[in-house]
Amino acid sequence: MKNKEELKKKITAFRDKFKEYLEVCRSVWQARRRYSDGAEHLEKEGTLREQLTEEWGQLENIFRKIGAPMFGVIPAIGYRTMFFDEALSADFESPHKGDGLQSSISSATKAIGLIDALSDSDYAGLTRRTPILFLSHSFRKENEELIAQINTLLSSFPVSVVTGAKPATGSITEKVKGLVDDSNFILSILTRDEEQKDGSWSPSKWVYDEIAYVQGQKKPVIMLLEENASYKEGISGDAEYIRFNRSNLTDALLKLVTVLNSLLSK
């Protein structure tokens, strides 16, 4: 959104559509209490629910950033749930749908006030796109602690971290390609994963494939290369790598911080 007023109008329209949806849902519930299936209301209900689900997908991150309520607790079991999901459920037998609808309308109303209270500089920060970092790594169990430490470091930076799923067979998946396409840069963790015939160790083929795909798109690549792991020179062009020892990551992580700060300042 170009300015606060446009965003307020969008959220106001979103709230008002929720109010309309609530009335349609009440009509469905009333019909079912009369032992009717409420078919005359279901087409409109489905259309509104589909529209609201799409609009919520566009607004969810904004609500999260401004601190608008999104979660409630089911008292009987103490279970924390996102009430927008309850409100937009197709299950009319759910005992939580009605409360979810009321809570969603209240949250949208509060969001309008929160947006209105933002200064121009705060609003500019709110709508600025967060850079996306694709974290490429092997999914071997031996690497879990290492990846957790790197993720902890990344959580202190203003980036959204995404990663692929554990590969099955074949080449890099379309899903992973899509994640890479949407990313601004890649951090590749090259660990000792595959023992070669000569006794040396090389990183996972999957990690190589992800690096090669990113290089084809001319996106920045940061590489952390484990000590005593061989590396195929030329696979990533002129990209440099940071050597690391998993028993003492301090030096490597300090270098990584420097590189990340440089990339994020551009």
Tell me about this structure.
- The protein is elongated, with a radius of gyration of 24 Å.
- The protein is 52% helix and 14% strand.
- It has nine helices and nine strands.
- The mean pLDDT is 84.
- It is α/β, with parallel strands linked by helices.
- It folds into two domains: 4-123; 132-264, 3-Layer(aba) Sandwich (Rossmann fold).
- Helix 1 (4-33) runs antiparallel to helix 2 (39-66) and helix 1 (4-33) runs antiparallel to helix 4 (97-117).
- The strands form three sheets. Strands 4-3-5-8-9 form a five-stranded parallel sheet, sandwiched between helices. Strands 1-2 form a two-stranded antiparallel sheet. Strands 6-7 form a two-stranded antiparallel ribbon.
How far is it from the N-terminal to the C-terminal residue, by CA?
A: 23 Å
What would CATH call the architecture of the largest domain?
3-Layer(aba) Sandwich
CATH class of the largest domain: Alpha Beta
- What's the helix count? 9
Helix content: 40-55%
Mean pLDDT over the residues: 84
CATH overall fold name of the largest domain: Rossmann fold
- Report the count of strand segments: 9
Largest beta-sheet details: 5 strands, parallel
Helix/strand-derived class? alpha/beta
Query: What are the low-pLDDT stretches, counting only 5+ consecutive residues below 50?
Result: none
Order of secondary-structure elements = HHEEHHHEHEHEEEHEEH
Question: How would you sum up the global shape?
Answer: elongated
Strand order of the largest sheet: 4-3-5-8-9
Write down the Rg: 24 Å
Please state roughly what percent of the residues sit in beta strands, choosing from under 5%, 5-15%, 15-25%, 25-35%, 35-45% or over 45%.
Answer: 5-15%
Summed up, the domain count is 2
